[in-house]
Write a structure and sequence with these properties.
CATH class: Alpha Beta
CATH superfamily: tt1808, chain A
Number of domains: 1
Radius of gyration: 18 Å
Strand content: 25-35%
Largest sheet: 6 strands, mixed
Number of strands: 14
Structural class: alpha+beta
Order of helices and strands: EHEEHEEEEEEHHEEEEEH
Distance between the termini: 44 Å
Shape: globular
């Protein structure tokens, strides 16, 4: 979750943001001068993130890959730094000189919330799709079964699928992983479906 801190008249430079973030006890995202404080998450959000990290971590245990949670910052482009809920990087793993910022994720997961969904679908998604290393971008609803999966098929070209059943399987060819939705939503309290009453 994030909330804008910096107003346009008090925008931070990238250098100022990185220096500020290195000393801060809280995490902040950054985009073109604006700083966004990361708020705490709710139970479902945390459970889904942990489910994904654990499942993918187990699947990639013997492969040259790393799975990171929301404590690792990612530079999508110069001027845009974010903390996705889960990220995966394989083979040539590139961090900045301080080992605090990942530069070449292959897969990114964002668990949607009311306060962040607009950015996850908007500014973040726009820049994620331009990040050359990224092959899969996955957005996950936290109160109902819905997984939205973008998969790169070429330069500037992506496919899109929506999975809404616990029996469905999320297939990530870029890292040779398959994740059943029942594993993603394990121990998650989902809202019951509302029944629409037919008029007599």
């Amino acid at each position: 979750m994030s909330q804008a801190l910096a107003k346009k008249e008090t925008l931070m430079s990238v250098a100022e943001y990185l220096a500020f973030e290195a000393k801060s006890k809280r995490k902040h995202e950054y985009m073109d001068g604006e700083v966004f404080a990361m708020a705490g998450v709710k139970r479902n959000h945390s459970t889904i993130s942990q489910n994904i990290s654990r499942r993918i971590g187990n699947l990639l245990e013997e492969k040259p890959c790393e799975v990171h949670g929301s404590d690792i910052k990612i530079r999508i482009r110069e001027g845009h730094y974010v903390y996705p809920d889960v990220s995966v990087v394989c083979n040539e793993i590139n961090f900045d000189t301080n080992n605090t910022t990942l530069l070449n994720p292959i897969v990114i997961f964002e668990v949607l919330s009311k306060s962040t969904e607009a950015r996850d679908r908007g500014d973040k998604a726009e820049d994620y799709f331009k990040l050359e290393s990224l092959q899969n971008y996955v957005m996950i609803a936290q109160n109902r079964v819905r997984v939205e999966h973008y998969s790169r098929i070429g330069a500037g070209k992506w496919t899109f699928e929506v999975l809404e059943n616990l029996e469905d399987v999320l297939v990530l060819d870029s890292i040779d992983c398959q994740i059943p939705l029942k594993n993603i939503y394990a121990k998650v309290e989902l809202k019951p479906l509302k029944l629409i009453k037919k008029k007599k």
